[in-house]
């Protein structure tokens, strides 16, 4: 609680408000790297995407299209942006972690896709045993462009964490009984933010969870891109994730 903007527990009206507590602005400095950690947590997996398969954990994979859905919202159909030179990073947020997530690099968000779904646990011990778990759970996919091509950040819901908030998107309603699983709901940010989309500067706040959950980064990058951390590491917002 020493890092919280409000250190006094009596200042929180509910347990949910406590979980979503903001931090003092200086406790998460932003590293001068091309890409930084977007959320406090534990790195489950990172590396290159092989044969359009994503790794949940080592040895457990699922398809790129089943996770993101068809890229028909892109002018090129996504053929170049989400297949060549793709990298991934999965960060698990435990219930006691800071629950806000931030922009990992300078990019523009052009599109939001909301998948209603289950709310199974995403703890690493469970993820090992349920292939495609991230494709079954409720999730919000933010997609757009950075300096090196396609970029996406996906907030994946978990047990008791169907509520996902995106600060720039007041129309988003997650954990809603009227939504049908197996469908998805698209919203183009270009309609109101202009031809580039919503600017997301490195380190800026993007959204929050009600409790612990998972962030999945998928992005195109040059072959010289290198990660500056590894699977199994505990990380915090703003620490170095990768550089060119």
UniProtKB/TrEMBL annotation:
Task: Name the chain's protein.
Answer: phosphatidylserine decarboxylase
- Pathway linked to the protein: Phospholipid metabolism; phosphatidylethanolamine biosynthesis; Lipid metabolism
GO annotations under biological process? phosphatidylethanolamine biosynthetic process
Provide a Gene Ontology MF annotation, just one. phosphatidylserine decarboxylase activity
Coiled-coil region: none
Keywords assigned: Decarboxylase, Lipid biosynthesis, Lipid droplet, Lipid metabolism, Lyase, Phospholipid biosynthesis, Phospholipid metabolism, Pyruvate
- Names of the cofactor(s): pyruvate
State the encoding gene.
Answer: LOC115651449
